[in-house]
Amino acid sequence: MDPERAQRLYVSNNPSDHSKPNYQAQIEAKARTDTRFAEACEGVIDFKQVKYRSSVGDLDIPAYLFQPLQKRGPKGHAALVWVHGGVHSNQSETMFPFIKEAVDRGYVVIAPDYRGSTGYGEAFYQAIDYGGYEIDDVMSAVDYLKTLPHVDQARLGVIGWSHGGYITLFTVFRDKTPFAAAAAIVPVTNLVFRLSYKGPSYQREFATQARIAGLPFEKRDLYIQRSPLYSVDKLHVPLLVHVATNDEDVNFVEDQQIIDALRSRKPDLAETKIYVDPTPGPVSGGHTFSRRVNPQTLQRDDSPEQRDSWNRTWAFLEWHLRPYEDRSKTTGTKREK
């Protein structure tokens, strides 16, 4: 036996077999992100950090809340739940220009750091539950939005990238969903395929999670359950999905599967687009093609494909959520002109 190869292939389901990250460094990085958000929002967005209880009942979920400075009356605003990506990551300040565009269009935006996110210490980090409780954490943001009388519960949307796109898919691949529309960009879609394709170094992120504790060949039903591809038939609200052929993270061979499934089985609800070798973003080639932002200025670093993707995304959400409508001015069944 080749011991070196055996070590590379070995995937433990015991978290203690793997090195721990620097939690203090993560906390300090998160503090810098919080400061940058606050500075960028000053004078243009009503920004604050909030917490709400996950519907699972075991954790308080931290979140950023971005709102227009001037609020409309009851049910005056549509809202978006903004879901970050990464197996372990957090809301990044580089999303600021796009969040500002959403707020400028009339949306209230809540951006949760669901369990497993970085910057909140070891216990929160190790609570990661990919495709499990994290979805409940994100959907529980709706409970917080219910405390804001100016948010119209009939005009809620959800949007996410990569792993955030994966969560977004699961929030609408349910028998019941609070969302009227969803946008999933370069989403993870098939864990059964993905873990095989990526190999042991990636598999270790999953095998050590408490509510997974194994690999697809050991937990077949669980991985099927946690792969959005196999729940496409549950979709009953409008969904936009954009993918890239030069994606080096969620490779096109994975995302092509869900594009084909949506086009064949949900053509009346799914709006899909494949970007062929778009101008790469800062990470993983086409994986971040629509998240090109100057990290110093927090301004968009547009490419033609980024502009096109965002134009289509805003138009899609506008069509279904009507963020420009101030429904607090509705009288009876007739809206004021």
Care to describe what's here?
There is one protein chain. The chain has 337 residues and is α/β, with parallel strands linked by helices. The protein has a single domain, classed as Alpha/Beta hydrolase fold, catalytic domain (Rossmann fold, 3-Layer(aba) Sandwich). The protein is 34% helix and 19% strand. It is built from twelve helices and twelve strands. It has helices spanning 3-9, 23-41, 96-104, 122-126, 133-139, 141-145, 163-172, 191-198, 200-207, 220-225, 252-265, 304-321, and strands at 46-53, 60-67, 77-83, 108-112, 151-161, 181-185, 239-244, 270-275, 293-294, 299-300, 330-331, 334-335. The strands form three sheets. Strands 1-2-4-3-5-6-7-8 form an eight-stranded mixed β-sheet, sandwiched between helices. α3 links the parallel β3 and β4 (108-112). α5 crosses α7. The longest helix is centred in the N-terminal third of the chain and has 19 residues, at 23-41. It is globular, with a radius of gyration of 20 Å.
Which SSEs are present, and which pair or pack?
Layout: H1 3-9, H2 23-41, E1 46-53, E2 60-67, E3 77-83, H3 96-104, E4 108-112, H4 122-126, H5 133-139, H6 141-145, E5 151-161, H7 163-172, E6 181-185, H8 191-198, H9 200-207, H10 220-225, E7 239-244, H11 252-265, E8 270-275, E9 293-294, E10 299-300, H12 304-321, E11 330-331, E12 334-335
Parallel strand pairs: 3-4, 3-5, 5-6, 6-7, 7-8
Antiparallel strand pairs: 1-2, 2-4, 9-10, 11-12
Helix pairs in contact: 5-7
